[in-house]
Amino acid sequence: MCHERTRLTRNFTVLDNALIQHEVLGGAAIAIACYIASQPEGTRVDIRTLADKLRFGRTTVSRALNALEAHGYLRRTVVRTPDGRVFTHTVFCHKPSQDQPAPQKPPRRHPPKPAPTPPPDPEPTPTRLTRRPLPPVPRPGFPARELLRVALRVLLDLRNADPRLYVSEADADHLALGVAAWLERDASPETIRHALTSHLPKGPLTHPAALLAHRLTTHLPPAPPPLPTPTHTPPPPPDPIWLCDDCDVTFKSPAPTCPSCGHTNATPSTRPVLRC
């Protein structure tokens, strides 16, 4: 290797070979030190500026500045201005002080050996996830099959109004009883759909089935009043049959007055009334 030397009279920087040929500092630290040494006083040499200028990562620049400070090439002090602002004042030392001991190169650290993996259990016990139960819902007085079918259809149609109201099969079986209770109280499917989908919170729903169960319970409409009990009036008893002893006439009348002769001494009779 040989040099083709040119005498520089301007725009050059004098650097110590001890810095350029440093055995402990890494290449990034040496490059950053050379760049700082070539800049005029007052230049910003913070981590962000150096990373953008030299195209190093901020972590790399931070480690390099710490290494230069440890070897005496940098002195950084925190300064607080009278107006309360805080900044770091950096001094670059072209020739570090000789009385400062240079830190030794840290020994290479070998990664720890992985611990031996214990053998798996011959019969691992599967962990069973505990499912949080849903709140209770109203129940119909008579859960007919057709009523539950209509209730399940109303519940499954909620996802068309809001896709967030998707429920699983197990949750749908539980919530269908609450919808059936509404239908049993003369609530139409449109009324139920409006009560369950209106004024929903914004954003994702963590547990839509629990929200539906809460609304089915708290917004349950009142039960219709019972139908009036019809009053049954028994029919009046039939008029008794009388026999007039004077004219031998059998008649049916509430009073023992003979319609033929007008006598009032008729006696009860068991003979049928003969109609002409």
UniProtKB/TrEMBL annotation:
PROSITE patterns linked to this entry: PROKAR_LIPOPROTEIN
Pfam families assigned: MarR_2
Regions of compositional bias (Pro residues) in chain numbering: 113-125, 221-239
Superkingdom of the organism of origin: Bacteria
Domain HTH marR-type stretches: 35-78
Region feature Disordered, mapped onto this chain: 93-142, 218-239
Protein name, per record: Helix-turn-helix domain-containing protein
Protein species of origin: Streptomyces roseolus
